[in-house]
Amino acid sequence: MTEKEIKKLMDKYLEGTITTEEEMLLEQFDGILITGRKMVFRDAAHRRQVRERLQRKIQWQRRERSLRHTAIWKAAVALLVVFLGIRIWYQQADVKNEAEPVMVEKSTDWGQKLNLTLSDGTEVRLNSGSTIRFPKDFTAPLRRVELSGEAFFNVAKDTESPFVISSGEVETTVLGTSFNMSTFPGEKQVVVTVATGKVKVASAGNEMYLDPYEQGVYDRDSGTFSKDTVDPDSFLLWKDGIIRFDDATMEEVASRLERWYGVRFIFENRALKECHLTATYDNQLLAVVLESIRYAKKGIRFEYGEDHKILIKGTCAE
């Protein structure tokens, strides 16, 4: 092997283009330098000079390769850290999105009603003066909504995701059923009336199950439940614009008419509040309703004022 051939092999080694066979030849040549056998050297000094130059180039190449591998490794680690950081950020963003769903709130003024269909197919009829808050999309294990006021629910069945209505201190849980719930602020009772299916009503560790044609009443003052058998249709008439009073006090009548028509009644005297009324009104104007009450209860008069206020005057005569 001539010095020119050796130099060519060295150049290929440094460039990284040397083949396995050529690298073996170069290693054999290095062995020749060590053993001192004569091949292509002019004398001993020439052999020593070539050997030292070869070793320097080999050591330099190894150092360059080591530095290059280290740089590549560091770059790979840096890229891995960036990738993991981005992935963790997206995972945290997904968790946050799951933990904080987009909420929708719908309200009705006095005298208004509203029909809603939730993302799971549940149908809601919201009564006057009521507010419902619900997720835009149900993604959590529980389909949870919040209600203040009154609404009729026809809940889409989903055995793996119960439907829960939170209304202050009371929670009502169903899988798929239809029922009415009245939970107006300021009223002493929360009333749940079941038309179909089964409902669980719970508060502060107490719970009660209701079947069709049963009504559960939670007393806010005592924190207790009571249950009775009722005709649910009589409690669902409001959905169709029908208002019905069964031996209701005039105070109860005024309260329901206030929500129904968006007015405010003022009693001239307390005795008028204890007057009782039994009547049914089917999509009637307020003026027609009040005229009917005046006709049924001789002595009662209504005086219209400003800001939708109506004064109830006179005496109650059966």
What does this structure look like?
With 318 residues, this protein is of the alpha+beta class. The chain has three domains: 3-97, no CATH class; 103-235, Jelly Rolls (Sandwich); 241-317, Phage tail protein beta-alpha-beta fold (3-Layer(bab) Sandwich), CATH 3.55.50.30. The protein has six helices and 18 strands. It has helices at residues 3-15, 20-35, 44-99, 232-236, 250-261, 286-296, and strands at 103-107, 114-117, 123-126, 131-135, 143-154, 163-167, 170-174, 178-183, 189-196, 199-203, 206-210, 214-219, 224-229, 242-249, 264-267, 276-282, 298-304, 309-317. The strands form three sheets. Strands 1, 2, 3, 4, 5, 6, 7, 8, 9, 10, 11, 12 and 13 form a 13-stranded mixed β-sheet that branches. It has a three-stranded mixed β-sheet with strand order 15-18-17, covered by helices on one side. It has a two-stranded antiparallel ribbon with strand order 14-16. Strand 12 and strand 13 form a beta hairpin. Helix 1 crosses helix 2 (20-35). The longest helix has 56 residues, at 44-99. The radius of gyration is 44 Å and the shape is rod-shaped. Mean pLDDT is 82; it is low at 33-41.
